[in-house]
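Q: what sequence does this backbone want?
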């Protein structure tokens, strides 16, 4: 995690996740599935927000809805634990589940500010903002 002291902009530099899915049949496919889920989790934690006004969605088009870009993607390391003694189990999108709490904990460790709502950006952030930030 990197937080710019002046602007308070947040950037995730590295994500490491370890997964036990029983006997691994397709390690490359599993690694790719989990990497995609990690990026999706980053979107929920830092960027994605539906904006409403007067009962209408203000950012109803993808051009207005902020999702992670390649430039937002950190170094990702996925460690697979191959358990031949267990049956195979699916991973699905479980890689995204722990991302937001980990990001929130990293922000707290770096700044002392506890954020409990997603995305972890100020309410004034607008769709298309190049990078989320938070306020103390």
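A:
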């Amino acid at each position: 995690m990197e937080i710019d002291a002046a602007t308070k902009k947040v950037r995730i530099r590295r994500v490491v996740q370890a997964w036990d899915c029983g006997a691994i049949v397709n390690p490359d496919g599993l690694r790719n599935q989990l990497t995609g889920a990690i990026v999706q989790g980053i979107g929920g934690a830092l960027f994605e927000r539906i904006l409403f006004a007067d009962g209408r969605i203000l950012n109803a088009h993808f051009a207005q809805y902020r999702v992670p870009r390649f430039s937002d993607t950190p170094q990702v390391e996925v460690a697979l634990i191959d358990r031949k003694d267990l049956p195979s189990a699916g991973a699905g999108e479980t890689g995204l589940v722990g991302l937001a709490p980990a990001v929130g904990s990293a922000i707290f460790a770096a700044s002392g500010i506890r954020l409990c709502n997603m995305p972890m950006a100020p309410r004034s952030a607008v769709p298309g903002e190049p990078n989320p930030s938070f306020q103390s």
